[in-house]
Specification:
By secondary structure, this protein is an alpha+beta fold. Helix content is 18%, strand content 31%. The chain is built from four helices and eight strands; from the N terminus they run βββααβααββββ. Strands 1, 2, 3, 4, 5, 6, 7 and 8 form an eight-stranded mixed sheet that branches. Helix 2 runs parallel beside helix 4. It is globular. The termini are far apart.
Length: 200
């Protein structure tokens, strides 16, 4: 997108990180397809930086437009591969509050992302913190349709070399094409998901 403004949001930069894991930490080969993890992030100007604002609805209300764009970008990044798990996070510049980033992680923004990955019944695990350029953040992952699938509990780390500035927020979504390689801790299998309540 050539226009840096998306609805109410001024976006300075988009980030894309892709990693493919072909073998486990001890060298054991993948039990099936490699594990692809994708991180998509947007660096946004924070209009609330440096001040306390009680009502954040002016950011929450238009956030579905951000969700739609994240959904479009994940479809583009997968190249046709199915997504099995997801997670989200925010990294808030030091003149902002953690709450400012959280305002863009609520259901209005998340539902279009769910649609973008072909649906998702489970809640999206999330995290966040304040920091500056070069801060490392770990984004939790879980199965998109059933939270109790242990094989899909995972994490992906991301770092943004030039963001966020003091008055910015980096909004982050992470995705994976399968569970951990050689997962062997038992529990509900992905093939056994009922898809009724987002848990099993």
């Amino acid at each position: 997108m050539s226009n840096p403004d998306l609805s109410a949001f001024h976006i300075r930069k988009w980030y894309l990180q892709i990693e493919d894991t072909l073998a486990g930490e001890t060298g054991a080969p993948a039990d099936g397809e490699p594990l692809r993890k994708i991180v998509i992030a947007a660096c946004l100007r924070n209009p609330f930086a440096g001040r306390y604002v009680e009502d954040l609805s002016s950011w929450i209300a238009p956030s579905p437009e951000l969700g739609k764009e994240f959904g479009r970008r994940i479809r583009e990044a997968t190249g046709g591969q199915a997504i099995e798990s997801y997670g989200k996070a925010c990294l808030v510049g030091i003149d902002g509050e953690y709450e400012h980033g959280n305002a863009l992680l609520t259901n209005p923004a998340a539902n279009p992302v769910r649609e973008g990955v072909g649906g998702g019944k489970s809640w999206v695990p999330s995290t966040g913190k304040r920091g500056g350029p070069g801060t490392i953040i770990d984004i939790p992952l879980a199965h998109k349709d059933a939270l109790y699938v242990r094989s899909h509990y995972d994490t992906v780390s991301a770092m943004f070399g030039d963001g966020p500035n003091r008055d910015e927020v980096v909004l982050i979504w992470a995705f994976a094409t399968r569970g951990r390689l050689n997962a062997r801790l038992g529990g509900l299998k992905a093939s056994e998901i009922k898809g009724e309540d987002g848990l099993v």
